[in-house]
């Protein structure tokens, strides 16, 4: 990918780019479908071309637009495999910014150019993400580090994307155009706006990285890179450099089933152990944020989307898992109401809808072993909710849960990508015990 010198930041310009992208990719996909309908041999050319356009446009736009592309690439069934493989490059091969622009950000933040702020600083990035890119560097004491530098102009681009999204949310206030009459989208939009907007603060991210490291310190199979506050600011984050294989590359390797399950278990602990212990969730579990290390540990990266949830949400939601592990029938309505869910209409209908969703979500812990490679949870959940949308919209989760559900869906997609096959029920029981141990500790002061 070539360097991209500037990020388009104006609202109208970014909106026009998204509209143009939609028109071009929809047209290309329509051609492919038409050829197939006329009996022609399946030609993946239109899908590949559409995905290439997505990659180029979203990669250039950065910000929330690129986050959307990364989320799409995580959905195992959302795109044809040929198109998904191209869009998945947004995880590791997105267009990078020109080095002079990156060097300027470093100088503005640290008070001196990269060549003086660090003993060594590689001009070529080792990774490019939605808000910044990472460069390999060395501190003056010889320590090897990874330096994440925020793209110049990306904060403004993010604001533009969120304002454009808010424009669509306000359209729901129109009684004629409002499709989902039973739900107010504004609190959910405000949650997204607040959380995504906060990701541009690298000081905040460093604090979450340190907190996350503390929460998994007694889980030796997990690793969180050390932060270096003296070389970190709001737009520059310096962390320990880590050697490892990116999760997607590991999943595509010839790794044996035991190794795949080991990494799958580590992923599950990385996402859920801080949640059950201290109400903390890593809300951006895309494959680019995990490295499989040579020593067998799993490194967790990128803490910009970490969130501290309320104790009420964690207690009510996790009680469903504990009931499943104990083989008890939970009181779905009472537990979810306690967790902050708003349940409207007929409670018996709601109870039936919740049980249907729960039965799908609980598949991995219903037996001694579970094959994530054959998992259809995300797809079946989506299908079920679409078929009974009106009833499902009467069960409204609290806005704070949005990052949690993003984390859970991402975890399921990662486990499927890994083709992890093993005792998921035992891991869930282990997590339940971690939570109970924490509660016992709190009760004894």
Task: Describe this protein's structure.
The chain is of the alpha+beta class and 445 residues long. The protein is 54% helix and 12% strand. Residues 11-44 and 175-179 have low confidence and may be disordered. The strands form five sheets. A four-stranded antiparallel sheet has the order 1-2-3-5. A four-stranded mixed sheet has the order 4-9-8-6. Strand 8 and strand 9 (298-300) form a beta hairpin. The chain contains 18 helices and 14 strands. The protein has helices spanning 11-37, 45-61, 63-74, 81-87, 99-110, 114-117, 154-171, 186-198, 202-215, 247-251, 257-278, 311-325, 332-338, 347-361, 377-387, 389-392, 402-418, 424-443, and strands at 120-128, 132-138, 144-150, 222-223, 236-240, 245-246, 280-282, 290-292, 298-300, 306-308, 342-343, 370-371, 395-396, 421-422. Among the domains are: 11-91, no CATH class; 246-445, no CATH class. The longest helix is centred in the first third of the chain and has 27 residues, at 11-37.
